[in-house]
Predict the structure.
Amino acid sequence: MQSQTVIVTGANSGMGLATTVELARKGAHVIMLCRSQQRGEQALSEARQQSGSDRIELMLCDLGSLASIRAFGTTFLAKHNVLDVLVNNAGVFTVKRQTTADGFEAMTGVNHLGHFLLTNLLLEAIVRAPQGRIVNVSSGAHKIGRFDFDNPYLTQGFSMWKGYAQSKIANIWFTRELAKRLAGTTATANALHPGAVGTSIGVDRDTGFGKAMHRVLRPFFLTPAQGAETAIYLASSPDVSTVSGEYFYRKKEAPISDRAKDEDIASQFWAWSEREVGLRAHRDN
């Protein structure tokens, strides 16, 4: 991956940090995309120390804010003409219903819509790469995922698992529709299930809810480095340089739910996503 430019979202901890370290070890110039300056700087220092590379930098972006994502896109494209790899790793899991700065339910807003806008803003730079890659971290939770266009932000009937599963099937619809749109280019888009990873996702920072469960289950979880292996594989392996629109687990193609395969829903969901983040109106003008 020498001379390649890579962005990893949610890079300040867990799988994002592990992905950053390993791709930097492979010679990539890695941009750690983080929301918090303080946590980002701590992670940057750790990533440089672990990888032995100084070709890692921190850039700030809040995936829960469309304005922040657009500002980052402008800043990045002013300095970089090409983006070789985008790893959409950041994710949230909220116990209570929360909303983003733009009023979206947080899990759908960050896990899907934030990455949807980010990817589209950077897409031309990815297509300009010799073999651009987009890697979307989904989950096996997509198999119970549903989406109601009349209740997209779960203002009625919210549950944490419903919201999370909805955002994870969204990742797969996004990946499959994006792969179709990239046909005829050298760029690819794939999704993955990292496995049950022992990160802080699912722990409420305010109440501490979930900490005790994490302590009990930690021996059965994968480490962040183990969970990151498939993302690293999709970002760097020559074995998947022409594979696109697929879903991987343990570095192998894996089955998805029948609902996730539905091309009509994926197309409709793409159009809905464009409208929500303001891309459709912009393009129609």
In short: The first strand starts at residue 5 and ends at 9.
